[in-house]
């Protein structure tokens, strides 16, 4: 995907985003803050206006498009169904947990539960695809994928309940 | 001169408000409508029918001058030398094609009509300079702004804006400089000396400009902006230098500060008010009979300078590697003439001789009325024009084969 940016003197800025099928999305940001969004079917076609938004609303829609507006609240247990029987589970390691200080390999969670840790979230840091030598700490949030039953076991082992 | 009363100012605003409403209702550009409104409210029309009318007065002229100053100030504010330099090859090539074709055409028409050189030069400027306001608005209204043709159009307008600053500085000296080569040279030296000083101040004064405007409340912010702008423009005028160009440079000075957007937001309403007064004032000073008297040069100019703009715009579009169809649109998009042609006319009105004081202003009003309407119509009907031009060219290629 390529984004082309150009100045529109006296008007504002224009961004063109390639959509992959030969068409382009054209976003005109006026100096007043108004955004106009067009679609251009091909290089030689005229731009077709899709919609326009005032500044504030455009920013809000932008965050929704970005996926940042819908923030799932992290609690002890949140599950997201992937389809069939497979879940993604967020589990936080509580203070004083046995897992604090162990590596993922030592904890051997996959063997014990059948759920696989795909991400370790530590504060602002995200460790994706953690390996066996990744050290776990209290306060980390683990994202695990696995069958429903495995996730249940995973959750109770990590939280110690 | 008779004094301009509050009641007359009220009449002015009623007229421009109605003109604006008519424009919005029928999708017409407001600039020519404000001018027509002024003509209708003038002694030449309303006066003849025994209706209350607005007199040409010094006060109204002063308010109109503020309009010119604010128009050019905003132009400077939007104008970025960096941007021009960044895109220099394309913008300057398209801009050069534009000026090399259209400015001489106007001068030649003037000379052919038997006008002196300075008058012909004014005519050249009037037919050369396209209307940034009308064209930009049409681009947005028609959605062309998101198409490839918007870049050469807006780029050429930026080039024209820079040219108009230099041009106004030059012709102001020629018009106001008086008779004799010596006094013209002296007034040119004063003009370019003053503008040079102003340019240096603009170049190195960013921090000073920033400091002056560094205030939280909107009220002192607006007042300080005007407190810098108006005195500089007024001083320029008092020494025979174009107040419009001085305002343009002050705008450029402010454009490099972090306050630019705030100035635009806060002052845009004030600009619109005074710009409307300026266009109205142009109308008030125009006797429709004089416009009719200018019918011959007007017809010649319309017939000649519509195609020249389309042709120069077409080649400007080709510079940007656009297809022939899109390049034609660039040409069609450049046809509208407006505010700057009227600024030149207002300058001519301060000169001497009936060509300058009567014929050129009347011509400019008629020309702007025709060209702004024609330009807007051509843009909205460009589909038909394209079909016509390109079907015919296909047929002619077919017959040639």
From TrEMBL, chain A:
Pfam families, alphabetized: KhtT_N (PF25991), TrkA_C (PF02080)
Domain RCK C-terminal span(s) in chain numbering: 76-160
SUPFAM superfamilies xref list: TrkA C-terminal domain-like
A GO term for molecular function: monoatomic cation transmembrane transporter activity
Superkingdom as given in the UniProt entry: Archaea
Biological process, per Gene Ontology: potassium ion transport
Protein name from the UniProt record: Potassium transporter TrkA
Annotated organism of origin: Salinigranum rubrum
From TrEMBL, chain B:
Protein's membrane topology: Multi-pass membrane protein
Entry keyword annotation includes Plastid: no
Residue stretches making up the Cation/H+ exchanger transmembrane domain: 14-376
Keywords for the protein's UniProt record, in alphabetical order: Membrane, Transmembrane, Transmembrane helix, Transport
InterPro entries linked to this entry: Cation/H_exchanger_TM, Na+/solute_symporter_sf
Coiled-coil segments on the chain, per record: none
UniProt main location, coarse: membrane
GO BP term, example: proton transmembrane transport
Domain of life: Archaea
UniProt GO molecular function: antiporter activity
Any one annotated GO CC term: membrane
Pfam families assigned to the protein according to its UniProt record, in alphabetical order: Na_H_Exchanger
Family: Belongs to the monovalent cation:proton antiporter 2 (CPA2) transporter (TC 2.A.37) family.
Name assigned to this protein: Cation:proton antiporter
Species: Salinigranum rubrum
Taxonomic lineage of the native organism: Archaea, Methanobacteriati, Methanobacteriota, Stenosarchaea group, Halobacteria
């Amino acid at each position: 995907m390529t984004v082309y940016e150009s100045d529109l003197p006296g008007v504002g800025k224009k961004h063109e985003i390639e959509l992959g099928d030969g068409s382009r999305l054209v976003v005109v940001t006026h100096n007043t803050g108004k955004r106009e969004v067009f679609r251009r079917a091909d290089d030689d076609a005229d731009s077709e206006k899709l919609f326009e938004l005032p500044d504030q609303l455009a920013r809000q829609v932008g965050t929704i498009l970005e996926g940042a507006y819908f923030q799932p609240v992290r609690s002890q247990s949140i599950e997201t169904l992937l389809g069939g029987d497979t879940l993604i589970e967020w589990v936080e390691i509580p203070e004083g947990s046995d897992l604090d200080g162990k590596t993922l390999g030592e904890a051997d969670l996959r063997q014990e539960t059948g759920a696989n840790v795909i991400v370790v979230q530590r504060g602002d840091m995200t460790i994706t695809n953690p390996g066996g030598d990744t050290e776990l700490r209290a306060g980390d949030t683990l994202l695990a994928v696995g069958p429903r039953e495995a996730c249940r076991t995973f959750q109770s082992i990590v939280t110690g309940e | 001169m008779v004094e301009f009363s509050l009641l007359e100012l009220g009449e002015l605003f009623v007229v421009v408000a109605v003109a604006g409403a008519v424009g919005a209702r029928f999708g017409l550009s407001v600039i020519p409508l404000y001018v027509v409104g002024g003509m209708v409210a003038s002694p030449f029309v309303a006066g003849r029918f025994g209706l209350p009318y607005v007199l040409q007065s010094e006060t109204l002229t002063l308010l109109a001058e503020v309009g010119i100053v604010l128009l050019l100030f905003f132009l400077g504010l939007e104008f970025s030398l960096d941007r021009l330099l960044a895109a220099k090859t394309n913008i300057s090539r398209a801009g050069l094609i534009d000026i090399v074709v259209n400015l001489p055409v106007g001068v030649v028409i003037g000379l052919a009509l038997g006008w002196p050189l300075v008058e012909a030069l004014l005519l050249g400027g009037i037919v050369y300079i396209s209307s940034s306001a009308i064209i930009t608005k049409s681009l947005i209204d028609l959605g062309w702004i998101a198409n490839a043709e918007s870049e050469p159009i807006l780029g050429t307008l930026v080039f024209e804006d820079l040219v108009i600053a230099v041009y106004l500085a030059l012709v102001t000296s020629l018009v106001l400089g008086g008779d004799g080569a010596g006094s013209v040279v002296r007034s040119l030296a004063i003009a370019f000396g003053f503008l040079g000083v102003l340019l240096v101040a603009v170049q190195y004064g960013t921090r000073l400009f920033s400091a002056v405007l560094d205030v939280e409340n909107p009220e002192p912010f607006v007042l300080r902006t005007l407190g810098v702008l108006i005195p500089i423009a007024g001083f320029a005028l008092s020494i025979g230098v174009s107040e419009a160009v001085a305002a343009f440079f002050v705008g450029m000075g402010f454009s490099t500060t972090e306050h630019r957007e705030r100035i635009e937001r806060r002052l845009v309403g004030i600009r619109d008010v005074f710009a409307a007064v300026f266009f109205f004032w142009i109308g008030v000073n125009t006797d429709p009979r004089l416009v009719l008297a200018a019918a011959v040069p007007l017809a010649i100019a319309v017939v000649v300078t519509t195609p020249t703009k389309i042709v120069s715009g077409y080649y400007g579009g080709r510079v940007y590697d656009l297809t022939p169809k899109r390049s034609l649109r660039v040409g069609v998009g450049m046809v509208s003439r407006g505010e700057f042609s009227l600024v030149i006319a207002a300058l001519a009105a301060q000169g001497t001789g009936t060509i300058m004081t009567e014929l050129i202003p009347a011509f400019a009003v008629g020309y702007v009325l025709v060209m702004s309407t024609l330009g807007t119509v051509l843009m909205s009907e460009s589909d038909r024009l394209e079909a016509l031009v390109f079907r015919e060219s296909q047929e002619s290629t077919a017959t040639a084969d």
